[in-house]
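Each letter names a residue; the fold follows as tokens. Both lines appear below:
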Amino acid sequence: MALTGIEIFKLLPKTNCKECGDPTCLAFAMKLAAGKAELTACPHVSEETKAKLSEASAPPIMPVTIGVGDRVLKVGGETVMFRHEKRFENPPGFAILISDSMDDAEVDRRLGKFKQLEYERIGLTLRPDLIAVKCDSGDKAKFEAVVGKVKQGSDGGIILMSDNADIMAAGLAACADRKPLLYAATEENREKMAELAKANSCPLAVKAADLEKLAGLTTKLTGAGVKEMVIDSGSRTLRQAFEDQVVIRSSALAKKFRPLGFPTIVFPGEMTDDPMKEAVIASVFVAKYGAIIVLSDFYGESLFPLLVERLNVYTDPQRPLATKEGIYEIGKPDENSPVLITSNFSLTYFIVSGEIETSRVPSYLLVKDTEGLSVMTAWAAGKFVADALAPFVKKCGIADKVKHHKLIIPGYAAAESGGLEEELEGWEIQVGPREGSHIPAYLKAWKA
């Protein structure tokens, strides 16, 4: 039985150090009891206490790790039904499907898509995460060969798909060191699949015909010592699969029902033959509550919107979306190109960079870290003022890229022009437009 907040508090070190992010140990204990915090956030808790609190501190949706190294994917660990309650913790992983019945050219094409379809957005790299290798041939050697080809041709995470434990073992022989997800354990093969998962320290996907049978199966596997699981309710229609996702999440969070407290895997490609409809279905599960989304193929025109949706849904609503600080080159600027500066609030960056592109005047755009605040708000908060901007301009290296040393600041920060000229010796501070829509005309006149 889960412990109460007071019972948890009695086991904590009671230092009130605030390093967990809460003002007191009691507040932290209450969050643990409610499933809205993880025990790992406390740096002073003893190993003995960790053991005692393992059940009480575990998030309602158990975290699962797939893969190794830089491309490791963590799913689950969720604590809320709705993002505005706190935040969603771990974004879902997108997987492309490769069958061992495909010829080498098709396998190479899909591996190429997996590597090539990645996008830069506000300083982040958006890309898919996993490759699902499915055994359709029933041939152990053929499956192992395709898995080996996928391993050599990609650094992404791997999902091995077969309900035959012997075939699964063959696939594992080719990639066990990459910690793949094994899909899937069923009532018929659960013992052999559980042994494979435990022996190779791999997460195990679990599939059943309905939620009741799924809960029974995860209970048996938990008793057998399997800790990391991903669950598939077996539904292959949008309506039923959507309903299952909501029931699984609400059962785990609201009712603390551990047998369904695991991240889920969904297959939009098994719900339609239309690639665009598949993308729409996938978008539903990004929002409600798929942890791994396996697509029949990748298409740039549908994958990019899904990646952006994932970014938006899984951005912490309590923190503004921010662009990475630095120098952004727009349109291949040279030593004579104008230099503008703005804040790192993502919307500000997109507006300013978009207007610079519209002007067709190659330019340097300096983005100052203002903790995600807009220019006006950052200026009012003392984060976009001369004392903060000048050190950034000096250190960022822009002085080595241009010979004119003229800096264009936003019109809303015009009051900082005098202070910047004092702080930036040898620089001429120019006040640009207050509105982004006026930037193209201003840059064309500046260039002339």
About this structure: The radius of gyration is 26 Å. The first helix runs from residue 5 to 11. The mean pLDDT is 93.
